[in-house]
């Protein structure tokens, strides 16, 4: 077949360790034979981030704003051990955090459903997408240890120098700790619009939950901003699309989610989304079967796998040992980005190819051919465990039949 052409570039962000190896395999085996890949390439591997003082991460995010769609490989967020291992100039920040901040984006994570891998919660029949607000709260907190006898106050000084004070606690009987959190109306509004737009894009109901009965100002602010934006900008659009926006308390939402069959978007504040996305991923099967897309309120998309760089397999690979690494989430990052690029550019062949690539990937697993982690989860009677490259070649065989 003639290779599919891409009139507009896709921003390609390369990554680290085993996922970097898989990245090249996916392009070689599943993409380049069928598509004239048009990408603007950025190497976000830790070595190159260190060489460029992390400027490459900023450049890749700005390119994503320019072209509208990006696909990202998993990357290392360095700790003290990585500082030594890679001889880093400094402990560079998470690339995902930098990109999220520049795009003002919301992270949407959803499980990839395949027959034979049964969710631990038997009622779940459809994917549950977690939308996580990726700004503020405990992730930008200020913390202090407090000694016995101290008095802690929350003090706000306005632009004219006027102070407003609220007592946090008088630590008369014991030492303790305090924590200060903040958020921004602008960021909450961007979060809300990204959620509403994504719900319209995928035609699914949107749930949002906080604890506004306890947090009567902080959490209530989230509730109010969501409600105001929905009523003014999205109520009619949701009605036309046949979907609904639903608000409830976070504890009620958890109970409803467990009893539900899935098939909706669950918007969460930063900490709630951090916890619930891993819970949903594990209950559906594996982080290796979880898609992740960062969506900005102005419609910029960055696709990636939800998991890390698979360090343990990478060290085996370096020793020349065989690996059986799950590449599904990385394949779906590519297919998601290609599909969105095709939709924006009205290239139906690209959209169709991306959909068939996803079908071929799912079909491979459902026909019993899978990597070791999936073989341990699958309930299928006849399973064939294959290595990293063989799995991609098995997908290729099925893809060519669909094409």
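^ structure tokens above, recovered residues below v
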């Amino acid at each position: 077949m003639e290779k599919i052409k891409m009139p507009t570039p896709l921003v390609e962000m390369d990554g680290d360790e085993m996922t970097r190896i898989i990245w090249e395999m996916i392009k070689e085996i599943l993409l380049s034979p069928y598509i004239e890949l048009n990408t603007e390439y950025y190497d976000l591997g830790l070595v190159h981030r260190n060489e460029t003082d992390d400027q490459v991460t900023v450049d890749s995010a700005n390119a994503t704003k320019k072209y509208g769609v990006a696909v990202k490989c998993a990357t290392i967020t360095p700790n003290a051990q990585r500082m030594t291992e890679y001889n880093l100039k400094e402990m560079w920040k998470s690339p995902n955090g930098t990109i999220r901040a520049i795009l003002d984006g919301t992270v949407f994570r959803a499980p990839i459903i395949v027959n034979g891998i049964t969710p631990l919660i038997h009622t779940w029949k459809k994917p549950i997408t977690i939308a996580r607000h990726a700004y503020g709260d405990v992730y930008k907190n200020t913390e202090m240890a407090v000694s016995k006898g101290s008095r802690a106050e929350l003090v706000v000084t306005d632009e004219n120098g006027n102070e407003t004070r609220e007592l946090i606690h008088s630590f008369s009987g014991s030492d303790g700790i305090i924590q200060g959190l903040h958020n921004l109306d602008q960021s909450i509004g961007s979060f809300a619009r990204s959620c509403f737009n994504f719900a319209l894009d995928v035609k699914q109901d949107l749930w949002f939950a906080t604890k506004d009965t306890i947090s009567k100002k902080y959490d209530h602010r989230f509730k109010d901003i969501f409600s105001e934006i929905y009523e003014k900008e999205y109520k009619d659009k949701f009605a036309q699309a046949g979907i609904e926006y639903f608000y409830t308390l976070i504890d009620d939402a958890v109970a409803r989610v467990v009893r539900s069959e899935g098939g909706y978007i669950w918007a969460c504040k930063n900490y709630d989304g951090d916890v619930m996305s891993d819970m949903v991923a594990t209950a559906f099967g594996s982080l290796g079967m979880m898609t992740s897309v960062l969506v900005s309120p102005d419609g910029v998309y960055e696709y990636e796998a939800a998991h890390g760089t698979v360090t343990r397999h990478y060290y085996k690979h370096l020793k020349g040992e065989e690996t059986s690494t799950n590449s599904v989430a990385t394949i779906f990052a590519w297919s998601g980005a290609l599909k969105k690029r095709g939709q924006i550019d009205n290239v139906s062949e690209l959209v169709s190819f991306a959909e068939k690539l996803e079908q071929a990937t799912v079909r491979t697993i459902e026909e019993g051919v899978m990597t070791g982690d999936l073989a341990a989860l699958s309930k299928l009677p006849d399973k064939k465990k294959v290595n990293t490259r063989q799995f991609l070649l098995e997908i290729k065989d099925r893809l060519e039949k669909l094409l």
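The first helix runs from residue 17 to 31.
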